Amino acid sequence: MKPLRVGIAGLGTVGASVARILSQSGFALASRCGRPLQLNAVSARSRGRDRGFPMEGVAWFDNPVALASSADIDLFVELMGGEGGPAKASVEAAIARGLPVVTANKALLAHHGVALAKAAEARGLALNFEAAVAGGIPIIKALREGLGANRISRVYGILNGTCNYILTTMEATGRSFGDVLAEAQKLGYAEADPTFDIGGMDTAHKLSLLAAVAFGHAPALDGIHVEGIERITPEDIAFADEFGFRIKLLGIATRDGRGISQRVHPAMVPHGTPLADVDGVFNAVVAEGDLVGKSVYEGRGAGAGPTASAVMADILDIARGVRLPAFGAPAATISRPEIVPLASHVGACYLRFTVIDRPGVIAVLSRCLADQSISIESMLQRSRSPGEAVPVVMITHEAREDAMVKALAAIVSTGTVMEQPCMVRIERF
Amino acid sequence: MKPLRVGIAGLGTVGASVARILSQSGFALASRCGRPLQLNAVSARSRGRDRGFPMEGVAWFDNPVALASSADIDLFVELMGGEGGPAKASVEAAIARGLPVVTANKALLAHHGVALAKAAEARGLALNFEAAVAGGIPIIKALREGLGANRISRVYGILNGTCNYILTTMEATGRSFGDVLAEAQKLGYAEADPTFDIGGMDTAHKLSLLAAVAFGHAPALDGIHVEGIERITPEDIAFADEFGFRIKLLGIATRDGRGISQRVHPAMVPHGTPLADVDGVFNAVVAEGDLVGKSVYEGRGAGAGPTASAVMADILDIARGVRLPAFGAPAATISRPEIVPLASHVGACYLRFTVIDRPGVIAVLSRCLADQSISIESMLQRSRSPGEAVPVVMITHEAREDAMVKALAAIVSTGTVMEQPCMVRIERF
After folding, report:
1. Contacts of B158 in chain A (CB under 8 A)
2. Is any Cβ of chain A less than 8 angstroms from the Cβ of B242?
3. Given this model, what pLDDT does residue B384 score?
4. Cβ–Cβ of B137/A306 closer than 8 Å?
5. d(Cα B340, Cα A195) in Å, to the nearest integer?
6. Where are the CATH 3.30.70.260 domain residues in chain B?
7. Which chain B residues are closer than 8 Å to A137 by Cβ?
8. Is the pLDDT reported for residue B306 higher than 80?
9. According to CATH, where is 3.40.50.720 located in chain B?
10. By CB neighbour count within 10 A (0-12 exposed, 13-18 middle, 19+ buried), where does B279 fall?
11. CB-CB under 8 Å, A138 with B31
12. For the structural domain made of A149-299, what CATH number should be given?
């Protein structure tokens, strides 16, 4: 049978890994997908380096758009990254030419996914992006196909390995956020500019894609409330443990009668629940459907092997002739969802205040919360240092987000607290 | 677009649930799979009952083989169960007629899967069985497609909800196996004849299918070592906890240079590992691949909703025109694997002996183990009742299975123990 000829733009760790797999196993994989896979063309920034696969018979392109436009290939694989630029231009060129596309580019899809999917579907082409979310976990396939008959009400998870590694290490060592981040950068677990990961935007990109596939609407990145993990302290992690929780950066998307709610923020999850035990660079996703109930998917969220595993799954599907709408439903029929604002979210919270240890402080805090009908489930004021700054932490009962915001503003305006209160939402899934 | 006309044989809780989904949502699901789904024919033992879906326009067949042979359908769904009989005859009839088949019947596939897959593939037909393993967890799809480029070295999991419910309840309540089983039967969580579940054969059927799909060979049910949970006592569960383990009935399939090893038995898994926290009727599967590393899939393993979710996923794939070889590789090319005998398995063990509490007993036990080069990692002889029967429990270091069998036989032959020793393998995945 005629081989499927593959072109890869981008030969970083993932691209080089996919190229090696195609070179070494492309023929053997015919038993899995019905036809041999053949690496025919590649493009990258620098040509010189040995990347562990033979370049004989593989055409080199300096320009990825030229590769997409003119290489002898049946499938274009985009592994450069970046929301626009050459990634977008080359994917558009491949589709315009009638080639199916595989990409791991969450930023590209979160911003331009619907336009690209429309173009691909209009020409009867696949646009696959399993590797864009949760690395090696086949979660896009699970949502789009395995749970395809379910009405999904909620999908959430730990989607950023860098943040999970930092939080796990802070917990294990008691070291500060900045300290652990610096080490993670040295070890290559965090980028030189880590803003995208630790600020939550990487998780937001992935959540927008998960939600789109789960609920059958267009990705709505601008409808996501995003907070990062920068303000979490070892103290918060220790208090969380005392209250029976661990702190994780979560992406959470919920659908109800009003529309879609999407949020990314650090959250306290109870010990013993599926997400609490996901450590280090692992990712996990929970999907809740009307038929299946709760199902959990866990695995490595990044790295050459796991990401290449997902890219290869997309390539195998295309070799088999499988062609599904990118977001589950045809792109021409999907629209932007109604966004439910965070203000109406109802949930319990962990609050940490830094106060001067003197009589009456707790009364002030409690009064401001009570004024917004927020009641306190438990409180800890461990250290006693009269006249000095000490932490007071609380777990509240369920309250509306807008009430909580007002209460915290009122507390700040009393002058009782030495710094901005720390608030972490509690998620008892 | 022309609807996909579906015929269902078997209207138990799962069949009736699938029929209801098709009746209520068959048209709406066209957005997921490109064409409407339409329930056209059903067959069951008794006609009278109202099963919650309208029978207007749905043809009734008393005989499932007649339904498969002559109903106006494009797809045959077999949900009767049973290794042979009408299930096998009707699936064969459907394939002979050129209809794709969806089934949840693990016994049928474990015994006749290759023959049926060959017949289906020779006619270019799909034979899908997502619902046969792990209920609502899309694990067949994950192994065959999502991890399709991986060389899987090991796949294992908790595959029987009845056993997991019994073990979880024994642990939570300290009650005996027989007591909890009787209650589970009353609650409908265990069959009137529970042998198949508690004896491990249901898990073995599922494991044979998982291993076949993961490793790309023919299911080899007769090559599985099978033990059930009947001999586990509340004492064992309590001792396991003291040593840092929980007891779960596992199915484990491993591939190495020698071939395939498959076993089903109660196992001790360390607290904090993915399978240890899977409780009640939940199932979980772990797959280890060369690219992806370890990935974990957890969800409800039985029940009308989860099983119907899996059946519907198979139906959606057929509606989309997706057609993959049943066992990952074409049935004509797969063969029976080399079976690695359990005798060569190497692992640590928990051992419980019932002995008369008197000096010298431990020396006898230790000597018999030492004679087979088995060393003891830790030992507990908690209760002291000189002259009476007391338990002695041990955790061994790693040892070969055949050495362990010899050591236990030697211990029995000394007359030191009051009953057959209890041995539970330890799995530190």
Report:
1. none
2. no
3. 75
4. no
5. 51
6. 343-426
7. 295
8. yes
9. 4-99
10. middle
11. no
12. 3.30.360.10
* Residue A224 CA, distance from chain mean position: 12
From A32, which residue of chain B is nearest by alpha-carbon distance? B329
Collect all residues of chain B within an 8 Å Cβ-Cβ radius of residue A310: 146
Q: How many CB atoms lie within 10 A of CB B88?
A: 21
Give the CA distances from residue B246 to residues B234, B240, B269, B272, B420, in Å, rounded to whole numbers and listed in that order: 12, 6, 5, 10, 22
B339-355 residue pLDDT tens: 999 999 999 999 999 99
Answer whether B30 touches A (CB < 8 Å). no
pLDDT at A188: 83
Distance (Å) from the alpha carbon of B381 to chain A's nearest alpha carbon: 31
CATH class of the domain comprising B343-426: alpha beta
Is the CB of A324 less than 8 angstroms away from the CB of B320?
Answer: yes
> Which residues of chain B from 358 to 417 reach within 8 Å of chain A, CB to CB?
none
Return the residue matching tokens 């990952």. B328
Q: Which residues of A touch B330 (CB under 8 A)?
A: 31
Other Cβ atoms within 10 Å of A423 Cβ, number? 20
Q: Which pLDDT value is given to residue A325? A: 94
Cβ–Cβ gap B141/A146 under 8 Å: yes
Instruction: Indicate whether A268 pLDDT > 90.
Output: yes
Ranges of CATH 3.30.360.10 domains, chain A: 149-299
CATH code for the domain defined by B4-99? 3.40.50.720
Q: Is A206 a known active-site residue? A: yes
Q: Do A296 and B300 touch (CB under 8 A)?
A: no
Q: Is pLDDT above 90 for B196?
A: yes
- pLDDT tier at A191, thresholds 50, 70, 90: confident
pLDDT in tens, A274-296: 899 999 989 999 999 999 999 99
Homologous superfamily, domain B139-301+335-340: Dihydrodipicolinate Reductase; domain 2 (3.30.360.10)
Mean pLDDT computed over B141-159: 97
User: What pLDDT, in 10s, does the model give residues B4-14?
Assistant: 999 999 999 99
Whether A289 has its CB under 8 Å from any CB of chain B: the answer is: yes
The conformation of residue A142, written as its DSSP 8-state character, comes to I
Q: What is the CA radius of gyration of chain A?
A: 24
Write down the pTM of the prediction. Answer: 0.96
Average pLDDT over residues A154-168: 97
Q: Among residues A206, A248, A294, A406, which one is catalytic?
A: A206
The pLDDT value given to residue B190: 86
Question: In this complex, do A291 and B309 lie within 8 Å of one another by their Cβ atoms?
Answer: yes
Chain B 160-219, residues with CB within 8 Å of chain A CB atoms? 216
B305–A292 CB contact, under 8 Å: yes
Instruction: Using only the alpha carbons of chain B, give its radius of gyration.
Output: 24
B 59-78 near A (Cβ less than 8 A) = none
Instruction: Provide the phi-psi class of A69: left if phi over 0, else alpha when psi is between -120 and 50, else beta.
Output: alpha
Task: Give the span between the Cα atoms of A330 and A125, in whole angstroms.
Answer: 12
Q: Is B184 helix (H, G, I), strand (E, B) or coil?
A: helix
| pLDDT for the residue B383 | 72
- Average pLDDT of B40-56? 92
> What ipTM score was computed for the predicted complex, to two decimals?
0.95
Q: Within chain B, which residue ranges are assigned CATH 3.30.360.10? A: 139-301+335-340
